[in-house]
UniProtKB/TrEMBL annotation:
<feature type="compositionally biased region" description="Acidic residues">
    <location>
        <begin position="29"/>
        <end position="44"/>
    </location>
</feature>
<feature type="compositionally biased region" description="Low complexity">
    <location>
        <begin position="1"/>
        <end position="17"/>
    </location>
</feature>
<feature type="region of interest" description="Disordered">
    <location>
        <begin position="1"/>
        <end position="44"/>
    </location>
</feature>
<keyword id="KW-0808">Transferase</keyword>
<dbReference type="InterPro" id="IPR029063">
    <property type="entry name" value="SAM-dependent_MTases_sf"/>
</dbReference>
<dbReference type="GO" id="GO:0008168">
    <property type="term" value="F:methyltransferase activity"/>
</dbReference>
<protein>
    <submittedName>
        <fullName>S-adenosyl-L-methionine-dependent methyltransferase</fullName>
    </submittedName>
</protein>
<keyword id="KW-0489">Methyltransferase</keyword>
<dbReference type="Pfam" id="PF13489">
    <property type="entry name" value="Methyltransf_23"/>
</dbReference>
<dbReference type="GO" id="GO:0032259">
    <property type="term" value="P:methylation"/>
</dbReference>
Length: 350
């Protein structure tokens, strides 16, 4: 993908992995749309103050704010500023809408006791779960401390790199994650840690995407459009840094390989735009279009400048071109959202 005067990559992009991506059709409308222990004393306070300063020492690049915790070589390529937080909260609404108002699909019962939310982001899912399940202790972890301080009493957050070795002393009834696409280097290790730290008989659930767009409704979208080339370069750029951009269609295999059973999988199309005939999908598509339009720079800047050597000004030109294409109702394109939930065998031995 090239913008005016844009530098071309000096390295050949890694080959994309081959796997089947189900294309799920959406019918289009016929008309075009115009507590700490006080016994620790001052030593603990001094230590935690030092840790907090490290965690909150954010990194700023090209006018956007990124995480500061364990930033060697960049652990996460998207911002953590207010614009990105707003986008993530909007996506929470989109996803909940697409799941018929449900926060999860795994049958965790009415009284779960311990729930872990991996990569909790703004914490909005954990907070909603805390309200829904007062019996549960909800723990959310993330590499960025961007979660609110006013939360239900049964919800807590911690700053952690979920790809490190976990050290929890008590296992969980349910482990949940979503939108970890473009952020995890070793998915197999993540699955093994989930298997180790969920109770026998407990559930895990992964909700995620891939970066592939497609059309099944006679749309003008194709891989040669600006959007198609942009999506490919985002994915290939992340692969240069060892990050997997397309976990969605591979999750079911990883879950099974980790030892989980009773595996359930759903593939749901997410339209982009208001072209679907179905009322709910039209609403999903409208919000999905907005979340792309509002933060294309946030999704693009760090990857393009780090992986491909583009200048920030060139990225802005590209994003202007992308917005024009995203707003074209004739594109009629979509991407897939995958939900996989599974159970740890009751007789499992770690």
């Amino acid at each position: 993908m090239a913008s005016s005067g844009a530098a071309q990559p000096s390295q050949q992009a890694p080959a994309s992995p081959e796997f089947d991506v189900p294309e799920v059709g959406i019918e289009a409308e016929s008309t075009e749309p115009s507590d700490g222990d006080s016994a620790y004393g001052d030593d603990l306070e001094s230590y935690t103050t030092s840790l907090k300063s490290t965690v909150l020492n954010y990194r700023y690049e090209n006018g956007r704010r990124y995480h500061g915790f364990k930033d060697e070589g960049a652990k996460y390529y998207f911002p953590n500023d207010d614009l990105e937080s707003d986008r993530l909260d909007l996506y929470h609404h989109i996803q909940t809408l697409r799941l018929g108002g449900e926060l999860h699909l795994a049958p965790i019962g009415d009284n779960p006791q311990r729930v872990l939310d991996l990569g909790t982001g703004t914490g909005i899912w954990a907070i909603d779960m805390g309200d829904k399940y007062p019996s549960a202790e909800i723990l959310g972890n993330d590499i960025s401390p961007i979660q609110p301080s006013l939360v239900p009493p049964n919800v807590k957050f911690e700053v952690d790199d979920l790809e490190d070795e976990w050290v929890y002393s008590t296992k969980f009834d349910y482990i949940h994650s979503r939108y970890l696409a473009c952020s995890i280097r070793d998915w197999s290790k993540l699955m093994r840690q989930c298997f180790k730290y969920v109770k026998p008989g407990g559930w895990v659930e992964f909700q995620d995407f891939d970066t592939r767009f497609y059309t099944t409704s006679g749309g003008e979208y194709n891989k040669d459009t600006t959007i198609g080339q942009w999506a490919d370069r985002i994915a290939d750029g992340l692969r240069k840094f060892g990050v997997e951009p397309d976990p969605g269609p591979q999750i079911e295999t990883w879950v099974k390989d980790a030892g989980f059973t009773n595996v359930h999988s759903r593939t749901l199309p997410f339209p982009v735009g208001t072209w679907p005939k179905d009322k709910t999908l039209k609403e999903v598509g409208a919000f999905n279009l907005l979340q792309f339009l509002d933060n294309l720079e946030g999704m693009t800047l760090r990857i393009y400048t780090s992986a491909w050597g583009w200048k920030p000004e060139e990225v802005k030109v590209l994003c202007a071109q992308l917005r024009k294409e995203f707003k074209n109702p004739k594109m009629r394109f979509q991407h897939n959202f995958y939900v996989v939930y599974a159970q740890k065998p009751v007789d499992a031995v770690d």
